[in-house]
Design a protein that fits this description.
heterodimer, A: alpha/beta, FAD/NAD(P)-binding domain, B: alpha+beta, Alpha-Beta Plaits, two-stranded antiparallel sheet, 2 helices, 18% strand
């Protein structure tokens, strides 16, 4: 039975929202999750790649939501060279539809309530404080009261804006993406591929994440400020025609990935933002699942603590921000500082980096080696990154 | 600004770059509030399927 009042209302049942709900409920708060769509996890707008060590703390690994297990990442340079990287241990390509439903079920198992087809349309205010959420369920407008709102409403987030938080992303800090799931391919199920270059994917990269020996998510992300004249679909169609002319498209998805720094503000009185809504995405890889889950776990715990102490002030909720900065935020700031420099490299530079990486044994090649090689002969870049690094270390948010 | 609903995939990328909160995404539809819109063209530039058009063009 649904109640009129909860301690915490979470808006959005993606990985960040479901994990936030679970941790809040597990730590004693009453929680309601509002999901706009008919079920959690759909439509899938994701390349579905994660690392084992990223998700293992949050859910027992289950083959029902694993499409394939990845051991090797292959980097392709514009001139056709390739280097292999043993990708920081095992990775998975997920079945997000099943994975998201499972994470949400876990939140419900810990006592959270869930309504699907419940589209949050505004916050409810009393005496300048957020006291609840207004939502549309089927064709009825409903309300629910709460002490804390957690906005996990994705890249298209509006919850933060309703609370007065500036969530706008600059054109150059969002990737505009298209992905096909292709069938009828012949691929290596244990490897994923990344393609770089001005002709393939300006300001971003193109990926192949296998879902089986014959199917894969093949997608592209272009930096938003470079995609106006020739869009991501045109680049992807050219690539598919060149490389997999016989493959059939069995799923098409469009979407945007924030490649920014974490928002300046992710908490205010009675409200927290998590996941894509807070722009908690790795700005170089575009990976947001694990980051969102980590943010959700911190926010959920802090929310439950706030409920126990009956203190929902921004000052108290900032514990979430502090912990986020410590765990991931600082690294995200650093990645953000490197991003423009990395994706702004000319083709020749990518060629020379991949040629260098190729000489290293795959088990020795890590992202750190890659970035070090990318910047080592460029004193200006090294200086810039050192400055950015120092800035990110001392950044006070 | 006008959305071509035959093309729009309801991905919400446009919302993230809108400076004035003029775009609303529901389960089945994206709508632009032309009174709030300042015609900055960010949404049009970032749309992965080019489903947004400037009506004056």
């Amino acid at each position: 039975m649904l109640k009129d009042r909860y301690d915490v209302v979470v808006i959005g049942a993606g990985p960040a929202g479901s994990v936030a709900a679970r941790f809040a409920a597990e730590n004693g708060a009453s929680v309601l999750v509002l999901e706009r769509d008919r079920e959690p996890g759909i439509p899938v707008r994701c390349a579905e790649g994660v690392s084992h060590k990223g998700i293992a703390p949050f859910i027992e690994i289950d083959e029902r939501w694993i499409a394939s297990t990845i051991e090797v990442a292959r980097l392709h340079s514009p001139d056709g060279n390739e280097a292999h990287m043993l990708n920081n241990g095992t990775g998975y390509v997920l079945e997000r539809r099943v994975f998201d439903a499972e994470l949400c079920s876990l939140a419900c198992k810990f006592g959270a309530d869930l309504i699907t087809k419940a589209d949050a349309i505004d916050l409810i205010w009393e005496n300048n404080r957020i006291v609840g959420v207004k939502y549309k369920y089927l064709n009825e407008i409903k309300t629910v009261k709460c002490n804390i709102v957690i906005g996990a409403d994705g890249v298209e987030s509006r919850v933060g804006r309703w609370a007065g938080i500036d969530t706008k992303v600059k054109l150059e800090d969002i990737d505009t993406c298209v992905q096909y799931t292709l069938a009828g391919m012949k691929i290596d199920k244990g490897s994923c591929d990344f393609y770089f270059g001005e002709k393939v994917s300006p300001g971003g990269y193109l990926w192949i994440f296998p879902k089986s020996d014959t199917t894969a998510n093949v997608g592209i992300g272009l930096s938003g400020h470079l995609a106006h004249k020739k869009g991501p679909k045109e680049y992807l169609d050219e690539f598919v025609e060149r490389n997999f002319p016989k493959a059939k498209i069995i799923y098409t998805v469009y979407g945007g990935v924030p490649t920014a720094d974490t928002l300046k503000e992710i908490v205010r009185d009675n409200i927290m933002l998590v996941g894509d809504a807070a722009r908690q995405v790795n700005p170089i890889t575009g990976g947001g699942i694990v980051q969102g889950m980590i943010a959700g776990s911190i926010a959920g715990k802090v929310a439950a603590e706030a409920i126990k102490k009956q203190n929902y002030s921004q000052k108290f909720l900032k514990k979430y921000r502090k912990e986020w900065n410590k765990r991931i935020g600082k690294n995200q700031s650093l990645m953000f500082a490197i991003k423009n420099k990395f994706f702004g490299m000319k083709d020749e530079k990518f060629n020379s980096i991949v040629a260098f990486c190729k000489k290293l044994p795959p088990e020795k090649l890590t992202l750190k080696e890659l970035f070090t090689e990318a910047i080592k002969d460029d004193p200006k870049l090294v200086l810039g990154i050192a400055k950015a690094f120092i800035k990110s270390k001392f950044k006070k948010i | 600004m006008k959305i071509n609903h035959d093309l729009c995939d309801i991905c919400g990328t446009c919302v993230a770059v809108c400076p004035t909160d003029a775009i609303i995404v529901s389960e089945f539809k994206v709508t632009i509030d032309n009174e709030k819109c300042t015609k900055c063209m960010n949404c049009l530039k970032v749309c992965p399927i080019k489903a947004i058009e400037d009506e004056q063009c």
